[in-house]
Amino acid sequence: MATELISLGILFVCAIIGGIIANRFKQPAVFGLLLVGALIGPGTLNLVKDQSMIGIMADFGAILILFIIGLEFDVSKLIKLGARSILIGLLKFAIVLFLGYEVTLLLGFSAKIALFLGVILSFSSTVVVVKILQQKEMFARKEVPLLIAVLIIEDVLAVFALTFFSGIKDASSGLLNVFEHIVFSLAILIFAYLVTMKILGYVVGVIIKNNSDESVLIFLSLAMGALFSYFAIYLGLTPSAGAFLAGSLIASLPNAKDYGRAIHPYALIFTSIFFISMGTLVDFSIIRENAFLIFALIAIVLISRFIAIGFLTYLLANFKDEQPFFSSIAMISVGEFSLLIAKESQKFNLGIDLVTITASIIFLTALLTSLGLSYSENLHSSLNSRMPVRARLKLERLSSYMRKFFDQMEIENFFTNKLKKESKAAFMLLALALFASLISRRVSIELGQRNNSLFLYGFYVLSAMMMIYIGNLVYKKFRDIHHTLSSILTHVDASRNLQKCRSILNNLLLTLLLFFSAMLFPFAIFMFNLNAIANLVPFIFAIAAFYYMKRLIMLIDGSSHYTPSYNASLAISKF
Predict the structure, then answer these.
(1) Within this chain, do residues 366 and 413 fall inside the same structural domain, yes or no?
(2) How far apart are alpha carbons 158 and 185 in whole angstroms?
(3) String of DSSP letters for 93-105
(4) Of the residues 102, 324, 403, 539, which has the maximum number of CB atoms within 10 A of its CB?
């Protein structure tokens, strides 16, 4: 017991030292905490020797940091983010994942390691980005609201990634069974979240009425986090998912600001516990052995951020001049979710210390973000002058058109309100179709085990009829969405009629569908354990995506070379 208490005391004292170091060099606290943690860990000075205690503190810190992130995430915020930021967040995740995956494969690593590294590089650090922008007095810049929205989208994606890896770590019972388990467990957890949201306000009101002490708010918040974390573990999911939802529940309360203010003093303690505990897991010998890999991954981060943030904000948000470069540099830092995913990789016995590698990347990318923001204007001047004029003009026309399209999407009018209702209904129908198929599968297995062929074939017929009916409803709803989007496009450019707008929309949807299929295909390789030849499939999808993107640009430009004699997007145009 004495050893554990001494180790815990050392962690807290060194957390203070790490904060002082970071503040001295005007860096985020993460910088100092990881550095000091690495120095006191078993791999260096060995001041903290109790490995089990370190593991417990890291797990505890992970749950608490997810809870704190959840406190900043109200579901209503996600709804208000808009299609532009959601699409940029999704595309950024997909692009960085794919580039990280492919380059890691080229370096000779396995597909599993490549996927983990691709996912690890995909997430920027909310903590680091906000802190650096505040320190440099750049938080008031016009680009920041969109960047914060993208970070929120990334947080949601990270929770799903953690849930995916935690649920699929034991696929011995079959991939379909694992998928079924994840879906039903998530559904139960989300159902509990929705039910609790309905009654929590009343319960909190009663508690506050009888005891208005601020400590009640703190203990109520932490109790909710512990309850949902335990429930997630019970369902076979990562406790971090439950902690995130618990924080989101607290954020949805009318007096959420009071809870945030009450728990804010403890937020620094919680995040410090996590980062310094993860720092103690760093082994400097691993960094020396994988120095080339680490620098290659940092190069991927730099290149992918300029593609996924710089280009996308230019194309979809109409960022001009130095804005795309500033946004790219601001999002360079790899974040806290990456450490959580690296920690999750330890359960797969990959034969490589991804925690140490990830901690190194976080440390270096935080430093690059801080230094690079001061030189974004110079970078813009040197790179912008080298872009061919013809290519720049085409991109500017496409950017202008996409900006007008998303501006129309964000205006409150008849068509956008109709689109929201149709999208919500389509999502509910898709969820119904998924659960109906999984339940039908489960029932058919039960009937098959009872050797009752008559009932089994009868159930097959009824299931097929039900799925056809639901599928028809989904088809009609997506057809309505397609028509509404085409109508919105007619307001972007009055010179184009509804039929031309449908052609533009068809090519845009096909481009996005093929692009996401290409970028996210590594997940399919991981899940189905496909052989090396399967790595060619994403490139086939990517080539097809660029083909339709070229057609899209020609349609927007109104090029006379475009001849719609054969439209490969007939399947979509039928909508």
Answers:
(1) no
(2) 17
(3) HHHHHHHHHHHHH
(4) 324
The reply to whether 440 and 524 lie within a common domain is yes
Predicted confidence (pLDDT) per residue in 387-396, tens digit: 566 666 777 7
| CA atoms within 13 Å, Cβ hemisphere of 507 | 20
Are 373 and 136 contacting, i.e. CB atoms less than 8 angstroms apart? yes
Q: Which of helix, strand or coil describes residue 124? A: strand
> What pLDDT, in 10s, does the model give residues 225-254?
889 999 988 888 888 888 888 888 888 777
pTM: 0.85
**What backbone torsions phi and psi does residue 462 show, to the nearest 5 degrees?**
-65, -40
Residue-range definition of the domain harbouring residue 469: 409-573
Q: How many CB atoms lie within 10 A of CB 56?
A: 13
Distance CA 447, CA 457 (A): 10
Token pair belonging to 91: 């595309």
Cβ 13 vs Cβ 116: under 8 Å:
no
Count of domains forming the chain: 2
C-alpha–C-alpha distance, residues 513 and 507, integer Å: 10
Q: In 3-state terms, what secondary structure has residue 528? A: helix
Give the domain-ending residue among 324, 353, 386: 386
Give per-residue pLDDT as tens, 164-210.
887 776 544 456 677 777 888 888 888 888 888 888 878 777 777 77
Q: Are residues 124 and 250 in the same domain?
A: yes
Burial of 66 (C-beta count, 10 Å sphere; 0-12/13-18/19+): buried
Residue 343 CB coordination number (10 Å): 20
What's the CA angle centered on 182, arms 459 and 159, to 5 degrees? 150
With tokens 């806290």, the residue in question is: 336
Task: Count other C-beta atoms under 10 Å from residue 436's C-beta.
Answer: 15
Rounded to a whole number, what is the distance in angstroms from the first to the last CA of the chain? 68
